[in-house]
What we know:
By secondary structure, the chain is α/β, with parallel strands linked by helices. It has 16 helices and 12 strands.
Amino acid sequence: MKKISLLGATGSIGRQTVDVVKQHPQHFKITAFAVGRNLDLAKQWVLDLKPELVSVQTKDDCELLKTEFGHLPTKFVHGMDGLVEVAVFADSDILVNAVIGSVGLYPTLKAIEAKKDIALANKETLVTAGHLVMEAANKHGVKLLPVDSEHSAIFQALQGENSKNIESLIITASGGSFRDRTREELKDVTVEQALNHPNWSMGAKITIDSATMMNKGLEVIEAHWLFNIPYEKIQVLLHKESIIHSMVQFHDSSVMAQLGTPDMRVPIQYALSYPDRIPHEAKRLDLSEIAKLHFNSMNFERYPCLRYAYEAGKTGGTLPTVLNAANEVAVEHFLNGKILFLEIEELIERTMESHQTIFQPDLETILEVDKEARSITQSFVK
Length: 382
Ligand code: NDP
Ligand code: MG
């Protein structure tokens, strides 16, 4: 029985993690979880999962839960301290980090110090401070198990392989909701159109990131850190069906790919069952039914956010922190109807240009730069 701490239990990945756990009660149990503001679902999970510890974002919500569930042995906590308490919970073996944004960084570092293995969905954590996370993971001997489908595919393709034989990583990209539009046709797209992803049903932020291709940019940086591969050896390939989840090219010319119908519960479950595999009900892949798969090379003019991400990753230091923070703020403004779709990339570019990169930043510097970048992006919004 693997005991799980889950951050972001009410989100898209969080809900699918709960689903995986419910399918395999003999294998998994959620002993602690954290949510943001979705109290209704948090209450349901308290009753369904009977956790020992629950964290919510605000003190008021925490008090509400304490009153409502006073008869239960569950402990309720809140805020960043609450997130950390869940992340390092003594009665859990693994942390599933499925919060959105760089708020996931500090609890991840604390969980690593507490020697918890980590199933990581929260890619912003690796983008904003990959060097600190990997250094800590190596120091404390903890495993970082990818949940992102592309990274899970690469991780699976690398089982039993020696990383010195890797020639390149090939990350596939569906192209998101606007893949069939020209840049001209992006000028007045709506939030609703942007949220309509053709292959995956995900949280709002990552769905917009998919439309701008920033998601792939964040994934390139995530892959760089997880697999310790230089940016020159990481390629992105457009593949609209999302059947091949990513590939590894070895230097003998062999290519290993991982395939499957698009269903995030599969990589979530693999991260939890690793190194074993357990049955899953996901729709089976029928290649004769699909008949054709399509591939296109990436166009960096069409998707400038991917270019910014490579640039930030290659430069290193605090520039990826700035890229990520500016993106988080810009996407939030787009979702709130304050800026146009194409202004997302413009805000990111301007924020990056205004930043003087600091190399080898420590945690304090990262947190400061993250905060500062957010306010700079904010100041560019009219
Ligand atoms: P969602 O927006 O659906 O969920 C985010 C979760 O984080 C919610 O549970 C939310 O709580 C919680 N949360 C947000 N802010 C805070 C906070 N300050 N304190 C505590 N909890 C907070 O996101 P997704 O599930 O889509 O994505 C999660 C992560 O996984 C992201 O990093 C994303 O890039 C990555 N990912 C997602 C995939 C997907 O299919 N969705 C695929 C691959 C990667 P609440 O709702 O209660 O406010
Ligand atoms: Mg992905």
